[in-house]
Amino acid sequence: MKSIYTIVSSSRRRRVLIWTGIGLWLSILVGCGTLVGCGPSAEELKAVVYTPRDRADWPVSTPAAEGLDPLLVARLYYNAAKLKSLYGVLVIKNDTLIAEKYFNIGYIDQVSGRMSFTKSVTSALIGLALEQGYLKNLDQKMIDFFPEYAELITDPRKKQITIRQLLMMRSGYPWEEHYPDLTRRMFWVDDWRWLPHIVDVPLDSDPGTRFGYSNLGSHLLGVIAARATHLDLMVYAQKNLFTPIGATIADWTQDEDGYRWGFWEIQLTARDMAKFGKLYMHGGRWDGTQVIPEAWVKDSLIRYSEGINFTAWIGSGLGGYMHDLGYGYQWWSATAGRHTYDFAWGHGGQLVVLLHDLDMMIVTTADPLYGVPGEESWHYEGAIIDLVGEFIASLP
Questions:
Q1: Going by fewer Cβ within 10 Å, which terminus of the chain is more open, N or C?
Q2: Residues 362-378, mean pLDDT to the nearest whole number
Q3: Which residues pair with 349 in a beta bridge?
């Protein structure tokens, strides 16, 4: 049989192709409503398994029992299965674990460095140190805790940086990854002694004037808490924060001076990350005990910076699901669909998302270094953030 392209003229061939294309488009629209809406069938979604394991550390339930459409949850896990760097996804509603599944090399008892999720933990420890009298107030100067560097500082603005400004990411210290040489020195060829960077990392804005994400600033908060309490930060955190909620820190990496990294690398299971989130869902209370001051939780989730341009910040977009990005005391906030949410956020896709209006949490864990070194950062992480954002936007 001859091809259609052989038996029609050139002009007629173009008309045939145009109408064939229109017919194909219409058939797709009829078949699934809209191109954007195309996805798994109801039968495929019903086959998705996400039942959590019933263990003593979390009460379990089902989406339907907690008033949530099971097919919405199934779609979340159907889409999650496509992501190569994802370790796990948990959904908690009304204080019960209603969905849980692990992917790739992830598993229920897995512990690994949770990257900048750690920042939100460090914030909680500053709040505890303040409540217990180890810190006078948040307007204490950073340099008061690092007297050995006071005479070495040549920029007088650094001596005015406060604990509050460090918490709000308004210290003036830059985001290291905006400066390749700084990134190389601090993350790759440095001896991992970060305290001298108080002196040698230049400010890129006046303290208190604008948002500027800084890993150094968060690490200094952790050292301040350790020096104020005269305790190893992991010991202090386990005793005062994690033991009361039935969670365990598996490890927490240290710098060359012996201080736990205040900005990354605390190691917890996904379920224990969810317990930390539950604490913030309940104003710092756990089973009737006030673990973190309620006022601290409230203050931590205030949006001190708003309208943060994520695309300009990391040089990459995150689809259409994260809007109105804001920042509190080492906690993020954003909107998706009709919902505003707070979240702890670690590189690679370590997320603890708080949806207060729905009494719901979403937790994700992932491999932060998946892919080609230098390119792994935002592509896979963005896919996980979009996964969560799309799910939130779908919720009534």
A1: N
A2: 79
A3: none
